[in-house]
Amino acid sequence: MLDTYDLVVLGSGTAAQVASSRARAADWTVAVVDHRPFGGTCALRGCDPKKMLVSGEEAVDAVRRMRGHGVEGDVRIAWPDLMAFKRSFTGPVPGKQEQRYREQGIDAFHGLARFTGPDTVTVDGRELKARHVLIATGARPVTLSITGEEHVATSDDFLELEALPARVVFIGGGYIAAEFSHLAARAGAKATVLQRGARMLPGFDPDLVGWLMERFDDLGIDVRTSTTVQRVEATDRGYLVHAVAGGREQTVAANLIVHSAGRVPDLEALDLVAGGIVLEGGRLKLNEFLQSVSNPRVYAAGDAAGSGPPLTPVSSHDAKVAAANLIKGNHAKPDYRGVPSVAFTVPPITTVGLGEAEARERGLKFRVKSEKVPQWFTARRLAERIYGFKTLVEEDTGHILGAHLVGPHADEVINLFGLAIRHGLTAADLKETMFAYPTGASDIGYMI
Ligand SMILES: Cc1cc2nc3c(=O)[nH]c(=O)nc-3n(C[C@H](O)[C@H](O)[C@H](O)COP(=O)(O)OP(=O)(O)OC[C@H]3O[C@@H](n4cnc5c(N)ncnc54)[C@H](O)[C@@H]3O)c2cc1C
Ligand SMILES: NC(=O)c1ccc[n+]([C@@H]2O[C@H](COP(=O)([O-])OP(=O)(O)OC[C@H]3O[C@@H](n4cnc5c(N)ncnc54)[C@H](O)[C@@H]3O)[C@@H](O)[C@H]2O)c1
């Protein structure tokens, strides 16, 4: 282990992995630091473990949909076994990560990192001097500032539950509430979502969210919008969640309350003042090259940078941009065109590019095609009632401005619209493409 490095990377998630290996490949001396097991949010506490659990849901949902259509019998989620299945993936991740760092010649430090000066960082009592630092510390749940906040579990806690409690309340109605309430309800819990916003999943097309809400109803998920949680009270039988909606107080009983009210860059422990790193509105103040405006040695990437949407592919993209600028001098800028996003409800809902309202606000000239199409073959063969789309195509150029899908295979098909947006393909290009039939993609020609 050295005391001086060309690059010290704070964090060991997606952004850290990508940037550290690029810098090392350029023959830089590199250290990574994390106070939690190595691997970051996506692999250990986010996308991947969540989707391992969704696999159980998908299996149950398929049987329930096909019942009466040639499939008989009942199936249910065996929660401890599904958790064990999840751990079969997450368990080996930290060890594999450490081995990867060893093989690459990257030094890995365990501990909470904190700046002690513009080019020094302390980790577990050891001071590291750095020619450059990359802040890749990810995000944390936003502080709710409500009485009883200490009783609110995080998504990390939910993903480690050995047993699923009978009544689960979600505070907030975005990605985590949508995905985890579907999971909890299919696994037999009573799920309630208390969403301050006027609707669920505000990042997705309102019409498509409306169609998806039918499935929340089927699952018995109690979704209360325009409802703000005010306090949480512990009782001898669990908790009471006190909320207010339209001036009226409501109380919901719970055995588990899950934070799903948003995440913010995780910067608190870093002592940014000591590092000479300024913030603006609670976020790192960065230039267009993802470099701190006040300390040019320091760059940031991923959720910690807060520059693009807080998603794994964006963390990876940011890290490539920051690494390129570190190694060759500032020249690369992030490009967030065509970043697809999926909420992994069953069925999934997806979005890429501009929403209809945003495109109108920008004064663009475009045609909208939107329809709920459960009668299409893709949905029929799966006995799925929820299937629909909305596409936005620019009038003059034929460019795809935005695409929004809900239903089977939407999580895969949206990537093709992302490809079109990012690489300037037109609606005509997509229509001329031959997609294997019958697949989700073979519907694209009819969606535009
Ligand atoms: C429940 C959940 C589900 C998600 N599902 C998806 C999904 O399906 N698809 C998708 O694209 N995105 C998903 N996301 C978002 C995605 O996980 C993040 O955008 C992505 O993992 C961020 O990567 P990162 O490298 O920026 O940070 P992270 O992977 O969060 O890594 C940051 C690391 O820094 C460490 N750290 C923090 N502070 C310090 C410090 N002071 N010293 C040392 N180490 C520190 C942390 O321990 C952490 O390991 C999900 C997120 C959550 C919470
Ligand atoms: N599939 C995915 O890509 C995926 C899945 C899970 C999480 N994530 C990432 O994690 C981040 C955090 O997810 P999330 O679901 O916590 O946040 P979110 O930003 O998706 O949704 C938060 C919602 O909580 C509501 N809210 C905030 N404070 C509230 C309060 N006091 N009472 C009631 N409602 C309140 C807001 O109106 C908002 O709609 C996401 O932004 C996303 O980047 C991504």
Automatic annotation (TrEMBL):
Entries under InterPro entries matching the protein: FAD/NAD-bd_sf, FAD/NAD-binding_dom, FAD/NAD-linked_Rdtase_dimer_sf, Pyr_nuc-diS_OxRdtase, Pyr_nucl-diS_OxRdtase_dimer
Cofactor: FAD
Occurrences of domain FAD/NAD(P)-binding (ranges): 5-317
Residues of the Pyridine nucleotide-disulphide oxidoreductase dimerisation domain: 339-442
Pfam families tied to this protein: Pyr_redox_2 (PF07992), Pyr_redox_dim (PF02852)
Keyword Flavoprotein belongs to the record: yes
Record keywords, A-Z: FAD, Flavoprotein
Family: Belongs to the class-I pyridine nucleotide-disulfide oxidoreductase family.
UniProt name for this protein: NAD(P)/FAD-dependent oxidoreductase
Species per Swiss-Prot/TrEMBL record: Falsiroseomonas frigidaquae
